[in-house]
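Batch manifest, entry 17 of 40.
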Amino acid sequence: MNDILFIIQARMGSTRLPGKVLRRLGSNRLLDMIVHRVRQSAFYQKDRDNLVIATSDKETDDILEAHCVKHGFRVFRGSEERVLDRFVKVIEAVKPTVVIRLTGENPFVDPELLDMMIKAHLDQGADYTYILNTPLGICGEAVSAKLLTDISRIQALGDQYQEHVTLYIRDHPDLYHVQFLEAPEQFRGPQYRLTIDTKEDYESIKALYQKAGERPDISASELISLLNRNLGAANEREAE
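Output type: structure tokens
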């Protein structure tokens, strides 16, 4: 069996919304909610705890490390800017075959969608798998751990490829077995943002979460249905 490792990339030093990964959403911290949801994946293995938080070695992330330790989350620290190097250090320590890259601003990452992506990635023996036309923030990326290590060793690798872990693969799809999957109907909604990058995102996500009953296990498909209904109601009001 392929060794799967979920890596959640997170840090406190966001310029647009500092400390967002430990902000509250309902009664939960954002990071705690993401970890809880990822652990619902059929590919999460409790006995080996194949989920880690990859944060920076900056002093600002000491509080994030302390939070992870307190809650029993595995945490690795590395370069803030050279995020690819940070991932490779985790890979070298844990030695997975496949990495599932996630980020710490996506509270509604959906385990059902993750499982669909991972299964397709393994079935096709792909180097990289991504699901298209979902709302931003409800899935992740599946990528070969060896490929990330190989890319990190490319001489004179551009800074943008160090900062954005999978960008080199996406910019060179002819070099690798890349698969882009269409989202199932219930997960479609590319016009929506279910990610928290700015204060405006945070306020709108909080409002949506409250409207949905502040249920940490709510499926992304249910949230999309709620957004569709809200949009339909708004269009009806405009038409009156």
